[in-house]
Amino acid sequence: MFDASRTNPRISMPSSPDSPGIGVVQHAFVHDKQSRRVSESQVGINTVTCIVDETGNLTAGGRRLALGVFSHVYGMTYSYDLNQRRVSLTHPATIRPTATPQSYAYSPLAGFLTSTTDVFGQRIGFTYDSDARMTRVVRGQLTPDSVVETRSYDLLSRLVRRQETMGATVTHNDSLRYDRRDKIRKNALAGDTLVYTALGTLALTSSARGTESYATDALGLRRTGSGWLARGGRPTTYSYTSGSERLDRAVQVSAGELSHPVADTTYYLRDNDGALREELKARQFQTV
Length: 288
Hints:
The protein is an all-beta fold. 0% of the residues lie in helices and 54% in strands. It contains no helices and 23 strands. The protein has strands at 10-14, 24-31, 37-42, 46-52, 58-66, 71-80, 86-90, 102-106, 113-117, 123-128, 134-139, 147-153, 159-166, 169-178, 184-187, 192-196, 202-207, 210-216, 222-227, 236-240, 247-252, 261-270, 276-285. It has a 23-stranded antiparallel sheet, with no helix packed on it. It is globular, with a radius of gyration of 23 Å. The two termini are 30 Å apart.
């Protein structure tokens, strides 16, 4: 459900399992005049607030859970530089009382993100080439258990090789091939194959783990999907905002299996210009 400004003010979902007999759970959202979310509440249970500055940067947000038994507050604080780039993220002391804020560093000339360090001191470094393409990612920054990812590109700046290693062990290895439409048609090393419709939409993927297929309408919009990626082979249906090509939600249909998801729904929330702002996932479970 959307209001006149194309923001989503409320989502209703059946409560499951529902031993207390709650029934339908209401999630309500409040947005400001710029369509930025300022609060989200599970009606009658908990509220999440978001505080943004004049340019739309999230500067603080917290969660308070009040069930009549206990109360829990988790707040985070953000800071930005003069170029509106995030430079720190402060977690509450419940995570690690002596921790310093998570930090972000940028290159002085181009402004690329060069590293981020979390509250536990784990650092991730990024390297770029002269064409501003990411060529190297180091998770752990050359410690014995560091994960090093290298990337290379063709003359059209398409990613063609991606390799991930941990020490001398190769953990991921991709070699990508493209068609004349610049769409990936094969991962030569992994044995993956992708097939597209005449309109260029993905119709089928095949890999060692199985096959996934999609059915599209006359406009090339994806309507259904099934296969191992579609959650265990169960079909998924897709719907769009009326009169547009904007994906509104994806719903996995009933599985009919005990203790397995019955209907998983992903809502795609957009701003006034149609840009995807957030994905909201709602999962329900079958009970007996």
